[in-house]
Amino acid sequence: xxxxxxxxxxxxxxxxxxxxxxxxxxxxxxxxxxxxxxxxxxxxxxxxxxxxxxxxxxxxxxxxxxxxxxxxxxxxxxxxxxxxxxxxxxxxxxxxxxxxxxxxxxxxxxxxxxxxxxxxxxxxxxxxxxxxxxxxxxxxxxxxxxxxxxxxxxxxxxxxxxxxxxxxxxxxxxxxxxxxxxxxxxxxxxxxxxxxxxxxxxxxxxxxxxxxxxxxxxxxxxxxxxxxxxxxxxxxxxxxxxxxxxxxxxxxxxxxxxxxxxxxxxxxxxxxxxxxxxxxxxxxxxxxxxxxxxxxxxxxxxxxxxxxxxxxxxxxxxxxxxxxxxxxxxxxxxxxxxxxxxxxxxxxxxxxxxxxxxxxxxxxxxxxxxxxxxxxxxxxxxxxxxxxxxxxxxxxxxxxxxxxxxxxxxxxxxxxxxxxxxxxxxxxxxxxxxxxxxxxxxx
Length: 443
Ligand SMILES: Nc1nc2c(c(=O)[nH]1)N[C@H]1C(S)=C(S)[C@@H](COP(=O)(O)O)O[C@H]1N2
Ligand SMILES: [Mo]
Prior knowledge:
The protein is an alpha+beta fold. It contains eight helices and 27 strands. It has three domains: 3-61, no CATH class; 88-300, Sulfite Oxidase, Chain A, domain 2, CATH 3.90.420.10; 319-440, Immunoglobulin-like, CATH 2.60.40.650. It has a five-stranded mixed β-sheet with strand order 7-6-15-10-11. The site of ligand MTE has 20 residues, from strand 5. Residues 124-129, 171, 173, 227, 229, 231, 233, 260-261, 274-275, 277-280 line the site of the ligand Nc1nc2c(c(=O)[nH]1)N[C@H]1C(S)=C(S)[C@@H](COP(=O)(O)O)O[C@H]1N2.
């Protein structure tokens, strides 16, 4: 199937790559194709209307396009609408280097292909420790017990009768951008930053449920959340979070959760690393101390320079990334480009995003797209004229609590070099003279 090769004056990355060799081969092949296309078009894509390429097509003015002269697909051709076949390249993808078995793996959101701040449910990154179970909602139960007066076993209909809220929040895996610690120049923003997604979630506030069961206000300090998947993933949540904005979620972007994202019920701990947002939620226990489960003592800990492990890191700190232009793409011409990207903070709203085109020497403030919501993705835009010389594009976000996104060097000075999790460093994309955009680290 023919895929669109360009968006504006940006040549898109060859998306179906698996290895570095295949990426290179795909790039060479596509470059060859583009050169042929450009030659056929008389050199200028912008002037395609009058080009030999355009004249060769019978669909161009003054002719009416083939689809204008025929009837289209009937209403109801698809009961559940799917993207155009021309968008088939926009896919979640796995990194071969990270996937030992697809049952305990991650697939990344194609951030380079998305607009605005909402991630379509089918492109929300997925991370499962033991595969995605198929749960019959009629059979599913949520148990709430521990330091409570009235332990409860709830059905989905019980839950869906309770007062609900809808809120837009991101979920970011703590390991997002993890490969940047080792300076593995992964080829696209999908792999550097694609373990994040943002949805409108609907469900019941955990505080509502805790009131319902009459939790022990004096002694309750932590909640344990457990999943119904084969990994029975368990995480400790501090009571302050639980009583604040934690949600027990069944809806995602207006419909029920997708199976991969926890159908029929998941926890959402806004602003906190993804692993705490336990999917396929089946049990909540109220307790007075942290549980030290496997997923919080063996995994999801940060090895510090002094050899100790940092445990129980909750917040996803302020972070941003330019999604276009980004690594793997190619600028086809000098002139105007809209630099755009995403910023977020687990502490609240984004206050400002600065953009640099010279590797962080000079910064100018980007425009923020409304709405700017707490613990949600924020879209930023920046007008830029590329003069054809090499450039280093960077974005730096600042949140409403005053936290500033650090450079990789600043982060390494504190955290050392052996971390996997919590990398919120400024990301640099290099633009070469020929317009090729690559993933680099400077300083
Ligand atoms: N029950 C259960 N919950 C889980 C997981 C899991 O494997 N099992 N993975 C966690 C991790 S590590 C992350 S980053 C998020 C990812 O959510 P998503 O797959 O909806 O993107 O789910 C978390 N919740
Ligand atoms: Mo994760």
